[in-house]
Design a protein that fits this description.
- There is one protein chain.
- This protein is 30% helix and 18% strand.
- The chain is of the alpha/beta class.
- The strands form two sheets. An eight-stranded mixed β-sheet has the order 1-9-10-6-5-2-3-4, sandwiched between helices. Strands 7-8 form a two-stranded antiparallel sheet.
- A hairpin with a 2-residue loop joins strand 7 and strand 8.
- The radius of gyration is 18 Å and the shape is globular.
Length: 251
């Protein structure tokens, strides 16, 4: 729509600016302090596979972040909301003991009128991996308490509207988080360095108030992260740094 009617871009920008003002008024911030992805890497290399290089998914540094965080736990039990093609679950499955991924049921996706091409891609990378459990549920209606367990790493990447992110966040912190859990939200940024304020507003509203100071953006990614412990962070900046550049190999 924007390609055909470029003036519509102004509506997107105006809406993001309105959410920014809402966040500033409610929480006194225009963005989260940042932690460095590079500083989290124990080595100079992190393998990301599979990666489709197609629209609608995470970027390579997002997937690298998830693998890095999963590697902190031995063993790691991982939970995510939003399976999509299964790229994130498949990447984490290489380092985690077990992964659970939740997505809307296929029948529900059809009811919503989602294209068949979209539905056909569901879990294409993760469905055959033995250490991944696929749940076809609506996260907004599902009783997370029925799972009867806590998870080490949790990735929230479902519906990105304010109400959905807020409710997913509330339910995750109520039912799935233990004292050392790490929680990651996707699409905190439209692209690295450009905050998506509707998502930020929902994160801050959904997280228990006493834990808000433990949420950070991760530079060079589209993610925000909750760390249970203190971490080194800096003021947010959209300026690229030469020393932060990465190398990508395509195979």
């Amino acid at each position: 729509m924007i390609a055909g009617k470029p003036y519509l871009l102004n509506l997107v920008l105006d809406e993001n600016e309105a959410w920014k003002k809402r966040v500033q008024k409610a929480y006194g911030t225009a963005g989260l302090n940042e932690v460095s992805l590079r500083d989290m890497m124990d080595s100079n290399e992190m393998l990301v596979k599979p990666f489709a290089f197609m629209e609608g998914g995470s970027i390579p540094t997002d997937l690298a972040l998830l693998k890095l965080l999963a590697s902190r736990f031995d063993p790691c039990n991982y939970f995510e909301i939003g399976t999509w093609r299964g790229e994130s679950a498949a990447n984490v499955a290489e380092v985690a003991e077990h992964c659970t991924t939740m997505n809307l049921p296929i029948a529900r996706m059809k009811e919503l009128g989602l294209p068949e091409d979209y539905i056909r891609q569901y879990a294409m990378f993760s469905k055959d991996l033995k250490n991944i459990t696929h749940l076809q549920e609506d996260s907004l209606a599902f009783d997370f308490g029925s799972l009867g367990k806590k998870y080490d790493l949790i990735f929230i990447d479902g519906d990105h509207h304010y109400a959905s992110v807020k409710k997913d966040t509330e339910k995750v912190f109520e039912h799935l988080v233990h004292n050392n859990s790490i929680v990651v939200w996707h699409d905190y940024a439209w692209q690295p360095g450009e905050v998506r304020y509707e998502t930020l507003a929902a994160i801050l509203a959904g997280v228990p108030a006493h834990l808000r100071g433990k949420i950070y953006a991760v530079r060079n990614t589209m993610c925000a992260v909750y760390f249970p412990d203190e971490v080194s962070a800096n003021s947010p900046s959209a300026i690229a740094l030469k020393e932060e550049a990465f190398e990508i190999r395509i195979k």
